[in-house]
Amino acid sequence: MTATAETAVAAPPAGHAKGGPSLAGWLVRGVLLLPLVYFFLSVIPGSADLTERGTEWVVFALVGISLNIIIGYTGQLSLGHQGFVGVGAFAAAYSLTVHQVPFALSIILAIVVGGLFAMLIGFAALRITGLYLSLITLVFGITLEQSLFQQPDLTNGGAGQPAYKPDALIEPSRYYFFCLAILVVIVFIDWRLTSTKAGRALFALRENERVAAAFGINVTAYKLLAFVMSGAIAGLAGALFAFKSEQVTGEDYDFFLALTFVLMVVVGGLNSRFGVLVGAFLFSRIGLDYAIERFHWIHELLVEGFLFVPGFGEERIQFAPRLIGAFLLLLTLLQFPGGIAQQLRPFTRWFAGGPFSFKHDVDGGPGTVEGSSVRA
Amino acid sequence: MTTRRSRLSRAWMAGLAFVLLTAGCGLKSDTYDSVKASGGGGGGLGLGGGNGQVAVDTDGDGVADAVGTDADGDGVVDPGTTTTTGGNTTGGNTTGGPSGGPAPSGGATTPPPGGGQTPTGPGTTTGVTADKITIGIHAPLTGASPLPQASFERGAKNYWIGKKIYGREVVLKVMDDRYKPSGAIAACQAMARDSFIVVGGAGTDQIQACGQDRTLQRTNTPYISAGVTENGLRNVKTYFAASLTYKEQAPVVIKMAKSQNFLNVPAGRKWAVVTSDTPNFKDARDAMTAELTKNNIPYDVHLVPKSGNDGDALTLSGKLRQGRYPVVYFLGQPTFFLKVVRQTQDATYKPIWTGVGVSMGVNTVAQVACQGTRDSGGYDGRFLSPFPGLDRAPKAFKDSDGGRAKDDIELTLWGFSEFLEKALLRTGGVLTRENFIAKLETANFPNGVFPGVRYSPTDHFGGTAAYALKSDCNKGQGEYVTVGGLLYP
Amino acid sequence: MLLAAEFNADVLTPLVSGAIQGSLYGLLGLGLVLLYKGNRIFNFAQGEFGTVAALLTYAFVVGSGGLPELPYLVAVLIGLVGGTLMALLTERVVARPLFHQPKVTTVVATAGVALLAISIELLFIGANPLTARPAIEGNLISSGSLQVTYQQVLIVLALAVLALASALFFKKTQTGLAILAVSQEPTATSLVGISVNRVSALTWGMAGFLGAAAGILLAPTTLFAPGFMTGAALIPAFTAAVFGGITSLPGAFLGGVVIGIVEQFGNKWVPTTFIPGGNRILVFLTLLIILVVKPSGLLGKEA
After folding, report:
1. What mean pLDDT is predicted for residues C259-285?
2. Which helix (H) or strand (E) holds C163?
3. For chain C, how are helix, strand and coil distributed in percent, rounded to 5?
């Protein structure tokens, strides 16, 4: 398909001559958004269980934004992103617990370390691209998990490196709001970035490196910048994740987590900030896991089976989310390449102030990710 | 193409809307339930009996001696309302069958401390209602070294069939910790919200993680597990080890080796001490090497990664084969152990594998090890264990639940449940977490399926003895049998 | 005498056992190379072709779940057929529709297939390990620290034979050339009258067969549970294939051996007290270096 994909929440499509909806139009949009706002700001913090899951969603969403930066701006697929998250988590935990660094500083350290590790991969990405880069990131992530993250000094006891929240944030709902606030800030920064010169440069980069270079864009610098930014946000997510569970263990950052992130980003909708949020919701423990555990009818359906399809049985239902996730991934890739975000685009476009229509559909999907420039 | 796509989009969106709507409905009712359960109703739970009666323990021996009334709900028994009980509540009489006795067995619980105010956080009677006591137990049901889930769930129910503690049904709620400390913490924290006490089923790192978890400590949630590492758990007021820790078992391993004649090795040979390179196994390793030194047995230490892969198993097996160690003490991940056993042994080299226990269900380990070494002389494992092999299972266990066949997982849970019952009964009907802890830390239980346990307020590591298990590859597909009696350090 | 023993332990054992372990990786890598040659993709589901085949073989050897107990070779045949069918199904349902999309879409899709396969395996079997019987029991060499079982010898032989056979297939036969043609110039090839669909099915079928063979041979040598091929061998197999030359079948053999040896020496040289997982680090560095220095791999050719 065409390569001219746009991010979902960018400028409204051409042809919207009226110059935006009226005040009444905005009011209607606002009112319709209220249940959503209520859900995230009141329902979730109201339940201890939901708060914990909601915080995980926020962290996953941050990772998704970070992954989006690499995919959206450099056109590469990173399969080892869990490594950067882990690196940030350990940096925060280690500095706080072993070196008594203050909370804020430990988070900053996580950001810096995440950015640094991503920069290493960025350097590799200058020479290796496409499928091979994906392979390298994959092996990098797994190597980190099985070597650095098992380092006894770093992991301090099989239970992991502790990372205690400061007293002000001990209350789970407070910590949830703290993370949510950070997510909002990061999404905002990411959104503004697309309208700055740097953002446009990154876009041009993804479309065609040689043309971008011809226009005087320093390809190397911007590529590295994208990786560093991505790693920094991933590191931040890692720090928040560390403080959420108050223990950091290496084996959490395994290949399965990498797969979860890929599922999240692809099924949610590549190159779409909204898609990332939706995908994170679905694949963190507030999504499929929660639905299967708590919604009685879903639980029963999956345990007993449906018509001629056999159920999982009570014992094996824990594998259901994985199965559903894989199925969704294949469905997305084969039928709905832009993911959920693409399907919901008529709505998101309307909410952003555009017209409501089923047309002007822009295809997303991994097709926008570069193939390989290392020929064999 | 647009029309087909828009049709698809519409169908997709309709479906999504439907799901979201039902989600909204489902979500709402669940939120309400969980808010109720998480202790917002601490006051509501307290006086469940409804008759305002309160159990009082005047001589502090853990058994209720009197019944009083607390009509004004201020947390203090109203003066002049106490009447001594008829002795029906001593010992274990309140379990099984109708008690017909006075109120303590009838479902009254003391109101939470703090006289009169309704606590808004998780109350200390969390997990206790008028007719049910919930105990949460986390275990690796999935992950790198999982336990057989069906057996675990059955075993969790088995002991408690038809039993009541203070008129309440006891429910063991099982949660999967995915063999990861983070999974354990998530499970423990969730269980601390709706279970009376939390039990660690298996997995050293997982147990240590929950033992150290601040949320559990902050809510006075008692956390009990089999003895594993002591790292970081020595000073946790809410943690209890129900059997000997690895460190405490080191001299017992020596005793077992002596009694089974494999302590001494031929001249020029040594013991191999193989453990995962994590601080949680350091105290076990140090204690073992100290004991070997004390007995003048030469040894070599080999450290392996916590979750070794095939290449690591190969490297270790090379080292073991080179040293031709007649005895290998192993403490590490069960699946790694199985890989190593298979790759190390051959027709000319068959070491004795020993240690404080390697389990994903001990008989699962025995079975896979036996099958994997069929052409290299079979598997010879001599491990300690807090519970006996199936060959020593008590009759009550074998007859329970219609007398069906049961495995070692169910036996472990049976023994553990026996211990939990004793611990619950010591509260004398005062079912608050604080009282549970206070009473347990002065407990001295005799041997049951589990060896006896002795606690003190300064020592929550109560194990006293262990059984010696030996693998028998000719029994079924491979099983452990008990050798001799209990061994004491 | 003492020196020989030390040489044996320090050099010979890691070398030989590493080489043999590496053959395991190479065997899986053959299928990876085949699909890259044929379709220019990385197939993340290659390991699962093997797991499924191994599970089918196990089911019919042991007679589990009401299935009849069959002789070993018959069960192996069923396993091979099963793995091949799974690959053909993947080709039809996943690879063919995505044929004209950029390759990375197919790659992610194969990861989805792998995840789906593992979930279904877990569904049927649960997470507990099984024990697979080797084709041949017993040891060839068993002296000092070195142990080589007959099963492992079988693996090396199978690898050699299959690598040679597939290499010849591509060089000498019409079909082989057709596959290469399709991978390089799909439009032109179909114009000449070669059915792209049939070639694609053939390629995947062959890869499925190779993966199935790998799984059946490997299962007795390691912990046999759902997803074991992907967990234990897929990443090293990728590294081996890329290292040896992602378009070279003999390269997969060579790459496998080298990676296996690198792993063993990584364990030896990098002290675990400094940083654990030495074998992993060295494998990663090897991959990085080859991709930077000669991306087409040791025996691969450009374009």
Report:
1. 82
2. helix C150-172
3. 75, 5, 20
Q: Which residues contact B45 (CB under 8 A, 6 or more apart)?
A: B109, B123, B125, B126, B128, B129
Against chain C, the chains showing at least 3 CB pairs within 8 Å are A, B
Does residue A4 carry a pLDDT above 70? no
Nearest to A318 by CA among A296, A288, A284, A286: A288
| Number of domains chain C contains | 1
Averaged pLDDT for residues B380-388: 92
What is the least distance, in Å, from the CA of C275 to any CA of chain B?
Answer: 10
pLDDT in tens, C152-197: 888 888 888 888 888 888 888 887 888 877 777 777 777 777 777 8
Residue C298 lies in a domain: no
Say whether C147 and B346 touch across the interface (CB within 8 A): yes
Rounded alpha-carbon distances, angstroms, from residue B143 to A236, B177, C191, C280: 27, 8, 51, 21
Chain A partners within 8 Å of B16 (Cβ)? 340, 343-344
Sheet holding B66-69, edge to edge: B53-56, B66-69, B83-84
**Is the model more confident about B114 or about A307?**
A307
* Residue C52 belongs to domain with CATH number: 1.10.3470
Tell me whether residue C302 is in a domain: no
For residue C57, being part of any structural domain is answered with yes
For residue range C47-88, list pLDDT tens digits in order. 999 999 999 999 898 887 778 888 888 999 999 999 999 999
**CA atoms of B62 and A60, how far apart (whole Å):** 49
pLDDT, tens only, B282-318: 899 999 999 999 999 999 999 888 777 888 888 898 8
**Could you tell me which residues of chain C have a Cβ less than 8 Å from any Cβ in chain B?**
5, 8-9, 13-14, 17-18, 21, 126-129, 131, 137-139, 142, 144-147, 221-223, 232-233, 260, 263-264, 266-268, 272-273, 276-277, 279-280
ipTM: 0.85
Contact C245 A376 (CB under 8 A): yes
Q: Which of C223, C269, C280 to substitute to test the interface with B, most B CBs within 10 Å?
A: C223
Range of the domain at C8: 2-293
Yes or no, beta carbons of A366 and C104 under 8 Å apart: yes
- Collapse the DSSP code of B38 into the 3-class scheme (helix H, G, I; strand E, B; otherwise coil) and give the result: helix
Q: Assess if residue C300 is contained within a domain.
A: no
Which range, A48-57, A343-352, B239-248, has the best average confidence (pLDDT)?
Answer: B239-248
pTM of the model: 0.78
Assess whether pLDDT exceeds 60 at residue B84. no
